[in-house]
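If your schedule permits, I should be very grateful for your opinion on a structural question. The matter concerns a single protein, recorded as an amino acid sequence and a row of backbone structure tokens. Could you please explain, in whatever detail you think fit, how the structure tokens follow from the sequence? I set the record out below, with my sincere thanks for your time.

——
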Amino acid sequence: MLKKLQNASIKNCTRNELNVVCDELRRVIYETVMQCGGHLASNLGAVESTVALFYVFDFPNDKIVFDVGHQCYAYKLLSGRLDRFSTLRKAGGISGFPKRTESVYDAYDTGHAGTSVSAAIGLAKARDLQGESRNIIAYIGDGSFNNGLVYEALSSLKILNTNILIILNDNGMSISPTVGGMYDILSQIKDSEKRENIRLLESFGLTYLGVKDGNDVDEMVDALTEAKALLKNGSVLLHIATKKGKGYEFSEEHPTNTHGVPPVGSPKEKEYSEVLGESLCDLAQKDGKITVVSAAMKEALGLSEFFEKYPDRAFDVGICEENASVLCASMATGGLKPYYAIYSTFLQRAFDEIIHDVCAQDTAVTFCIDRAGISGSDGETHQGVFDLSYLSLIPNLTIAVPKDTEELKRLMEFSASYPHPLAIRYPRAGKVVFDANDAEIKVGKWEYLHRENQAASAKATVIATGERSLIVAMKALQNLKNKGLGFDVVNARFVKPLDIELLNNLQSEYVVTIEDNVFLGGLGAMIDGALVQSGKPCKVKNFAYRDEFIPQGKVCDLQREYGVNCKDIEAYLSEVLA
């Protein structure tokens, strides 16, 4: 049936055939995600509503914005991408998120929560001002509906005088179970259709329709047909209830564990998040002032045990990254010791609050930044390659990068008594790579992992930060040792402040920097500036990511392609050391 639909309109299907299409979509999504990895549970739950959307609306003339994009797989399959779907999340293949460069059916790129309503309003105004005739739809989950940007958009909906359809896909989940006041309001509407709660939504200038069964394709066709007719007179909010993981028992029962899944047979390494969770529990046992904040991601960030052991000191605020940052700053000013665990790419959303609330007040907040550096298959919106750059310019903020999981434990111990803002950034998967060093961790102090001569600097010194970059440096050292060439290797465990004393004492003719970050504003750029200021005559070569957005692909492949390439580092050092 799906293959037939590549050359025929779904509008020609009978209602019974629509159910067959749903079953086939679910099968393809499940089988593909098992092979390629991806977001499983959220996409399974959105199948019937997507089929009904294609039956009622006219894509790509009509436009839809998927909030985040965790629900777009069925849409991609029904919009001419069935034959390429086996390349999902692979380099050069189908993106796991909506992507305008991939298809005319994708109206707006998404990957972070809360943007869909604003984007839909913008598309609607573009339609209105150009005299076009099309329907504009925002498809948003209840988890994203917590995000403050949604309410900024809703507040402007009346003012901007345009019509959009908002489909609120309510499954009680973001990655973790949905929390917060809006979740309570939606739950009460689902349970009893409380009129006063519906009036709250209607006060934004929306006609409310709901609650409809989002996993019943017949009911969805009828509801969307009604919504389409109402759009002629104003904006509409269609509230649907769905089951995350629908159609696969394990996914239905374990929606958090199957939100994002790796390909079958992927090697399992210990994640930094596990070490973070263990360390926070150990610290909290000793210090009753330690608190933990999450923005709807406690399981993914290794915080489940902390939430179980210390529920009074654990706070999940939903997908509200800015609110979480201010909450941490205020708790710190009140005498607590807050830790905010978050992905690098999501912390970007709280940039203003990091500056004004956390750092300008010099509060003792620790940011535990997961998925830093290239994250891989999720593509541009999830590559954490900017945090060293956007954090390094902020006064009062110290930035630390562990060389491996064991050093993360030591940095967490260091953080417990550190009285200023601190950011600790690390990738997803890790291990104990390097020999243990019991020397005290001091702010802004680096360590030599290898010295050719203890009494003097080698001809070249490689300064690298983080596990991935240090592994590249040590591999290059091992390979060049076989050729009779050697150099010093430094673990830059602090990116801010730099170890100015070590830099001033360097006598190397050549300095190489390596980082899992873009060059602009990162470690290499900061070292370049420091060496210029010191008047050092050494020649500097920086290895970092180019000034580009990095697409999906395997981490190792993307590192090589975008500037952190062991082969090129070896070639450069071979030339200068010969």
